[in-house]
Amino acid sequence: MLFRSLVAAFGLQLALEVVASPLLRDKVPVKRDVPSTHRLHERHPPRTANHWTKRERLSRKTVLPMRIGLKQRNLDVGHSRLMDISNPKSANYGKHMTAEEVIDFFAPAQSSVDAVIDWLVSSGIDRKRISQSANKQWIQFDAAAEEAEDLLVADFYYWEDSTGSHRDIACEEYHVPAHIQEHIDYATPGIRLRANNAVKRDLSKRETNKISALREGPHFTNTVAHINAVNDVPGVNSTSCSSFITADCIRVQYGVPNGTTAAAGNELGIFEDLNDHYSTADLDAFLAAVYPDLNIPKGTYPENRLVDGAIGSYEDIVATIGSNFGGLGLESTLDFQSAIPLIWPQKTVLFQTNDEYYEIVGTQGFFNTFLDAIDGSYCSFSDYGETGDCTDSSCADPVYPNPNYPSPIGYQGQKQCGVFEPTNVISVSYNGIEDLLPNNYQYRQCDEYLKLGLQGVTVVFSSGDYGVGTHLGCIGPNSEPNVGIIFTPGFPQTCPYILAVGGTELRRADPSAPPVEWEILEEVATTQFPSGGGFSNIFSVADYQADAVNAYFDAVESSFPFKSYNQTIVNGNFDNVTDVNQVYNRGGRGFPDVAAVGENQLVVYGGQFGTIGGTSLSTPVWGSLLTLINEKRIAAGKSTLGFVNPALYQHPEAFNDVTEGNNNGCSSPDQTTLWGFPAAAGWDPVTGLGYVSLLLALILGYYGLN
Question: Which residues form the signal peptide (predicted)?
């Protein structure tokens, strides 16, 4: 059936012309009478006319792959279910769901399925032509245009975008029976017009430095703050942890024992994108030089789980498309060289995502193709009026087969849906900007992290390296990120269903005193870069953190030189924030949740030793710690940790509090100083609850493992 494959007519269009005709229709259409039994379900918004022009009407025999989106159940109670199974005090703690159980949990009621199918059959659609999608959210069938028009009391036309280069099929409005409205979300093709994602670029003629400049894309970046050269590698020893971070330093600082087991399926997953690739040569050299005592064999690399034509290592990039496209990545270097020795003999998994074209050029949207690959139901998941990957210009995700560039730079296969299992812990050191993406795009993606949490998956995100701002600055005039003053949260670290990690640095309490081997160092908020943190503009404060956030405001809010507002910002529109001194949303989800060392990690990069800083270090450190805890739980026959935030906020005593530092990152209105939040006793939006102290002992004890 047509809905099982992409249809090539008109590029990305949905229709296949069975009978070609130069005529618009055999006769001029007459406005349809809407039966009294039907109700208007959707209509084009007024802004459509600004970007699209209605052209010829479809031929009667044009075949359309119709999909009726059913309203899902339990979207309102999914949060409660996750909080219950994530609360160590609950009898249901750790009773995670399978992927199939999650699908069934959110699946539409059978009464909705039956009602819609009965309506279709009574309207003349043969029952044998109708099926239900694998994720149970869609009723599917092929229909000639005349059937679809009669069914929806609508008229389908070709529409042309303002550039004249892209056409799509839609109706201006459609109707359904009154008794059916409560069962369906929307129909497609319907009123939605999809933006053209094809941006033609001749990558082969680009200079390497120009390609590199595009690697961050318009919205998203990794969270590597900087790299410094290291000349005195022999100086790396048991007294140098304030200058050179190694796995041994982290073990001593956080009380982490050496790994001893490698449970199958408990590998640490690490996400990479934006043309950032680890080097096998660098990884071999690093492990041999710094960790000879671990006896990690040469050739110990992450398992490749390559999404949508992605290429794994830098050496694979060179072998596949040559060396002119860059690709040697600081982010992936830091991720794998910090994580592998921490969790050894457990392994890592590389989730390299998107073909090299999209990795270099970037897209407005991010992470959706990765989530598609580890959860097939997400490919067509409907939530907040969003279904599947975004095709609107405001949030456009990669399109496959890639219409912009041939293989091997452009992936010509179908988008991958559910081809990989998610790992128990996924570390992600990339993020973007809340106000540059539609709210519904972020809500839908955040709900997917909820669904992963229900399955026992922990998703760990970096909080960012720009304090209360982002890599594009702070919010200024016309709600644009630039040299502005309104604090600018990132995304997805503001989603309440992920663990957001801030950065710290280690220092000796008395630098003038003789060094002591493996001493526990002081830990303060990073000073070489401001650790990302603040309050979301679109997600409300999470219930598990409300007391901690309120305590922070009670303690320090009166000392702020700036004011707050308390409202949800819709699609980046700050018009209702009228006071120039109002710079953050007091009712927003606070981040980060926790912190870890984010400065001076020793690495080998491009064959040379150096140190790297950024919350890109803090994140795989936390991912590694959680992976080690899961090792113990699995060995004891327990479930994985899953969504850890409620447990962590219940036990602030498991942390060493960081009370020194700030994350200043946005200018004051008079441009004379930088504003941000101060660290304070308890949770704060600089280092969260702090860094781990008794965490392993606490979790092992409370969860019955010692």
Answer: 1-20
pLDDT of residue 235: 63
Burial 651-666 (b: 16+ CB within 10 A, else e): eeebbbbbbbbbbbbb
CA atoms within 13 A on the CB side of 646: 21
Is 307 annotated to bind a ligand? Reply is no
Portions of the chain given CATH number 3.40.50.200: 220-271+333-346+419-702
User: What's the CATH architecture for 220-271+333-346+419-702?
Assistant: 3-Layer(aba) Sandwich (3.40)
The active-site residue out of 335, 375, 397, 523 is 335
104 catalytic, yes or no? no
- State residue 20's pLDDT score: 34
Residue 8 has pLDDT above 60, yes or no: no
Reply yes or no on whether the pLDDT at 154 is more than 90: yes
In three-state form (DSSP H/G/I as H, E/B as E, the rest C), the secondary structure along 552-607 is HHHHHHHHCCCEEECCCCECCECCCCCCCCEEEECCEEEECCEEEECCCEEEEECC
Q: Is 26 or 172 the better-scoring residue by pLDDT?
A: 172
At 213 the pLDDT is 28
In terms of average pLDDT, the best of 57-71, 114-128, 211-225, 562-576 is 114-128
335 is catalytic: yes
Sequence letter at residue 488: T
Both structure tokens of 148: 């679809």
Q: Which helix (H) or strand (E) holds 443?
A: helix 439-454
- Return the closest-CA partner of residue 589 out of 539, 633, 627: 539
Please tell me which residue in 142, 272, 282, 331 is annotated as part of the active site. Answer: 331
Query: Residue 625 pLDDT > 90, yes or no?
Result: yes
